[in-house]
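## retry 2 of 3
previous attempt timed out at serialization; input unchanged, resubmitting
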Amino acid sequence: MSALPPLKALQAFDALGRTGSLTLAAADLGVTPGAIGQQLRKLEEAVAAKLVAPDGRGLRLTPLGATYHAQIRQGFAALAEAGAVLREAAADVIVLSCLTTVLGKWIGRRMRDWTELGAQARISLVGSDAEPDLGQGAADLRIYYGGRTHPPHRTELFTDHIVPVCAPALIAGRPLSGPEDILRFPLLHIAWDPRFGANPGWAEWGRLIGTRPPPANLTYGLSGSAIDAALAGQGFVLGQLAFIGPELETGRLVIPFDLRLPLPEPYFLAWNPASLKKTGARAFHRWLLGEGRAQGLLSAPPAREPA
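## retry succeeded, writing output
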């Protein structure tokens, strides 16, 4: 006797036992009566026992088959219950989708603040540069950049700014007399995905200070990678302030001259209204909006004192 009969054979046998009819069992599983009969023969071979017997043009369970069915019915009931528990658990998890660098360098770093609030919501963070279909349940909330996608339910989160930053060791012993001196060091460039439009780079920052920078020494496809290169002392990067907060606080990155450029477009938060019915979802939604407002204030240029 096989330790574990084929699942399809067990399903066919269970359907016959539940419906009492070969025809109804076939309809229940969406197959032909012949397919049911074939699976039943496989089951009998696997367990080496006579489980069904002819009943006119159909089949019925033998006494041994009825005993066996009572046992496997408990197994299928347990599987159904486990599936229901899993669906219920999954249905209450709030999925937040973000651009990869936004997850790794911004909101992912702030999640400790959320957990310290003692919130009951269960959160799943997904980094993806592809825009999920919130209406189809691909995610519950999405942080994305720019206004090229238009979910029906969205709000502006914050507008970020970029500023030249580097590791302190890069400029140690090499004092900078003005912002143009930054251009004497290796420059790290970030090449955005074209679907996000053009991002301000060294050419734009050079116009801000009235000069023309040389070509960048290294180009990266992700902001996070370029920031990591700057942390490693490879050069200056125009870092988004939302992505370098902890590094600035700890002194791992420094801003020799605080001359900021705004990104062309803001970040947005989109959501599926049905998802806000999940446990803690509305509180999490409000928290995200608050974090966005706080970041907007941090990223904005410092107010100038009147002359």
